[in-house]
Amino acid sequence: MKIKRIVEKDLPISSPGANAVVDFAGLTTSVLAIESDLVRNGRPIVGYGFGSIGRWSVGGLLRERFLPRLTAAPAETLLDEQGLIDPFACWHIAMANEKPGGHGERAVALGTLDMALWDLRAKAEGLPLWQLLAERYRHGEADESVAVYAAGGYYRGDDTVKSLADEIRGYMDLGYTAAKIKIGAAPLATDIKRVEAAIDVLGSADALAVDANGRFDLDTALAYGRALSQYDLRWYEEPGDPLDFRLQAVLAETLSLPLATGENLFSSADARNLLRYAGMRPDRDVLQFDCGLSYGLPDYLKTLDLLTTHGWSARAVHPHGGHQMSLNLAAGLGLGGNESYPGVFQPLGGFADGIRVESGRVRLPDAPGVGLELKSELWRFLREML
Amino acid sequence: MKIKRIVEKDLPISSPGANAVVDFAGLTTSVLAIESDLVRNGRPIVGYGFGSIGRWSVGGLLRERFLPRLTAAPAETLLDEQGLIDPFACWHIAMANEKPGGHGERAVALGTLDMALWDLRAKAEGLPLWQLLAERYRHGEADESVAVYAAGGYYRGDDTVKSLADEIRGYMDLGYTAAKIKIGAAPLATDIKRVEAAIDVLGSADALAVDANGRFDLDTALAYGRALSQYDLRWYEEPGDPLDFRLQAVLAETLSLPLATGENLFSSADARNLLRYAGMRPDRDVLQFDCGLSYGLPDYLKTLDLLTTHGWSARAVHPHGGHQMSLNLAAGLGLGGNESYPGVFQPLGGFADGIRVESGRVRLPDAPGVGLELKSELWRFLREML
Fold this sequence. Notes:
Chain A is α/β, with parallel strands linked by helices and 386 residues long. Chain A has two domains: 3-126, Enolase-like, domain 1; 136-382, TIM Barrel, CATH 3.20.20.120.
């Protein structure tokens, strides 16, 4: 097996509106297609991958820095003993001569590449990725379905409480039983009204998570935390700067409310610091590392090992990003669940076309690879790449 | 004053060989030219900036993500009350809608942009940047000269001890009195021979720093640290992963040898974690944050404030990168010194053509701006940009 060519393009993504920090208008992501010399049903096997949400324009990094190392490497160095593309070998070759530290856009470029490599590998074996991962890392035991929650509740205009309730009702009509809404871009009193409206629709505070997107200083984070503690919410996400581990530790010491963070930590080195310094509680807190933003599976597996060492279950992990790669990881590696963006960040958000949310869970398709071909709006773009 | 156009290009950089982690062959950096409508001596005033060493291919980030926000902003929002380009206002506009955390290549793109903005601003005021900074932040008190050391001692072949001694003799002939060499890519016994050869040429252990480039695990870092403790070295740099604050803290607790790190921490948020968790000692240790890798001056000033809060002097800061922007910061803000790369990383490494190293110190030119026009090899490239 060998790589015949690699094509990189920018894919525009639909904007969901704004959260407390970011307006997503004009967002894109990088998409890769890796064509191999293996042929199945008369067509070459191709691996596809994309970068996760929020750190775009990494195409230059891929084209100028990471892909040339792969294409310059002798073909046999990219294979394992089965003669198939080895995503780990490719990862290490792509990362040769990179300096340590400073984990940002580079981690997204590698996440993009890694998804395409695993898609290619799983297709070469004729397996869905979740099954391949379960066989490699969980003695074949895959989860039949994955818990998902609808991430939405962006700020979209004046009538936020009414439109928010309508939006969450829409998610429930789709089969979701849990949702997450944004907080922090309105005054606390307004946000409390939004929270109460959302709980009212969902029927239970435990079905609602809230997300401040890293906006608050310690005083505000504590004020929100105390006000939110009157409800038994599912979690209180990214109250402060994602690297302010001390703020996080003070909140964990002060509040019994579950806390969630991790989507803006892009490496196992950063995750380790979170585990060491942020006082997070393995019995209740939630970790949201996104492989598509953080170097892909090779570094994600290191993070999962760190979790074990620090007394955490992989079930505490609910990846950010709402994409099919994380869904495969959730089912194959036994994570706690997966974020889901119904209707936003299209065509990346959401899962394969035929997949329905039932009682807040989704099943995974049996098609080989990550399953991107089964999402028709995304496939229309991907199939034009080669 | 307003911005008429911004041009971005890639600039190839000469390779110095290899350190313990990285072979720099094929390195480039991004260069920006910002043309204003102000005219002096019949020519438009232009600000130039480049990214610092090691995290290249950020041109796409600039062209697709950061520069469009600047060019879309109303012209008056980029100015301060004097009607001149305000680098802080421009920085905040360029960073609008960016998510917190994950400080990597984005920080280099902003460092590039920020250098060009300060070059433009200083030229608009007709001041060298070091003087402008001293007037704004140090009541006009600038350092007349800056301590520099020759960073070299890369691994370049078999005869490393002999060629290393020759290399350091060459630095002393240029006027340097201190040097830094790489360790960690050879066995400890070989590296000790390299260290002794370098001390022998320099005449004093206190004139020699050693740099492991983040390569060691804790055991190796301790073994090297104990072996190096027999000499009174200037410092022991980046023994472990730049984000492994606990390793750094164990070394600081175990060794009396001064430690140095920081070039691979690309934000004030990361610098704060270093100050909180790495046990670094304000009475002897050295911090090497590079504005050209870490968002430029707006975030660098935050880091300097954090240092004051944590009991450090700005004299503990010896920026990485050996470029003229850091040299201006060193003289204008009263840092401890600046790295220097004689003969490598050209045309970025080194300072203005007429500047000689005398007794290990350099003076700064009086030309307005950062002074890039005074380095002829760099200026040949820059003047072709517009």
